[in-house]
Design goal:
2 domains; five-stranded antiparallel sheet; 378 residues; 25 strands; six-stranded antiparallel sheet; Immunoglobulin-like
Length: 378
């Protein structure tokens, strides 16, 4: 597994799925971007370093050197390249030797009150007289002294991720989480449409769009499997819309993990999605049977509860076919699943953390979707 740190040198144009329509339309930025943004930028740079035109590769007209062919394969049949993790990170070192603090969106089982007090949701068997649409046996329940609107826009630091994995609520004073305003700001842009073929201003076609201005030292980390010795060590990337520049450098960092033996002996664990995930049965984990058991890598566990925010839609642009990719419903990063009655070996849990959840589409798998992280369920 190789890791690189991607630090933008300019604002970033990170577009979502919403197209411009009528005059006065507003284009919202997608932050954080999908992992496919990093996959495309890194693969394009790998091709450029080998002197191969990315468009010819996308159209199947380029011959790759053996090592590169094994890593990238083709558009139709991707090789060993896979983004194992992509997300925000804060560099406490320098450009030459990055010292990264990994950042994750707040898991769905954490609620932060206006006074910065964090509380973990607890799966609870509700009284039979309480009607609920929750389809699982246990309902994620927030137990706190006073009701109130939770605070949004929080990101767990590496220390916060480790505390959450132990089943502890993160603490602001201990540096367990940061706010969005500490990481980036929106930079609104005003534009105007042009008449096709004339280059003149179109009447009444003003629009606004959002750019992302990251704070100093904040960038993106990408951990990549299947590209040993091929990832760029330094230099620049074209990253996001309009090809804005970003500096890339090698880095050393590890996501906090819980020993698989600990989870296996406990017989229960939590699963956190660290990237948007594509499941064939909506929000249900793949390979669920009719009895509510989830099967993976020769092991199984019972899905007891889940905290899943509203599903999102992912798509993108297909360079090879010159058309949009299919729009797919995805379970958002930050979703949490509680599983108990684990039956299997610790090796199955270790493989799950390393390879992520199963995904039938090899192209989307290579792009980094369906990544996950395991934690204790106390």
């Amino acid at each position: 597994m190789n890791t690189v740190f991607i630090e933008p040198l300019d604002v970033l144009i990170l577009r979502g799925n919403k197209l411009f329509a009528d005059a006065g339309s507003h284009g919202e930025a997608l932050m954080p971007p999908w992992p496919s943004v990093a996959a495309g930028a890194l693969r394009s740079r790998m091709l450029a370093d080998a002197g191969i035109d990315a468009a010819r590769f996308a159209n199947g007209k380029a011959t790759l050197p053996p090592e590169l062919a094994e890593s990238l394969g083709s558009v139709a049949a991707p090789g060993a390249f896979r983004v194992a993790h992509f997300g925000l990170a804060r560099n406490a070192g320098n450009h030459d030797t990055p010292l990264l603090d990994l950042l994750l969106p707040l898991p769905a089982d954490i609620s932060i009150a206006q006074d910065d007090t964090a509380t973990l949701l607890r799966p609870t068997a509700l009284h039979p007289s309480l009607a609920s649409s929750h389809p699982l046996s246990l309902t994620p329940t927030l137990c706190q002294p006073e009701a109130g609107k939770p605070k949004g826009g929080a990101w767990l630091t590496t220390a916060g991720i480790a505390a959450w994995q132990r089943g502890e609520a993160p603490v602001k004073a201990k540096g367990h989480w940061l706010t969005t305003s500490e990481l980036w700001k929106l930079d609104p842009r005003l534009g105007i449409a042009l008449e096709a073929g004339k280059g003149t201003v179109a009447d009444g076609q003003l629009y606004t769009s959002e750019a992302i201005a990251l704070a100093s030292g904040v960038g993106f980390v990408a951990r990549v499997a299947g590209a040993s010795g091929l990832l760029p060590q330094k230099g620049l990337l074209r990253f996001g819309g309009d090809g804005h520049a970003a500096r890339v450098s090698t880095a050393e960092c590890e996501m906090p993990t819980v020993a698989p033996d600990t989870l296996a002996s406990a017989g229960a664990f939590r699963l956190l999605l660290t990237s948007p995930s594509l499941f064939p049965q909506g929000w249900h984990l793949p390979d669920m049977d009719d009895d509510g058991r989830w099967h993976f890598h020769g092991a199984s566990a019972r899905l007891a509860s889940a905290a899943v925010p509203r599903l999102e839609t992912i798509s993108g642009w297909d360079v090879a076919r010159h058309q949009p990719k299919a729009a797919l419903r995805a379970v958002p990063a930050g979703s949490v699943y509680w599983l108990d009655d684990f039956q299997g070996s610790p090796e199955a849990l270790a493989k799950l953390q390393q390879e992520g959840l199963p995904l039938d589409d090899p192209a989307r798998r290579a792009e980094g979707f369906n990544a996950c992280l395991l934690a204790q369920w106390n």
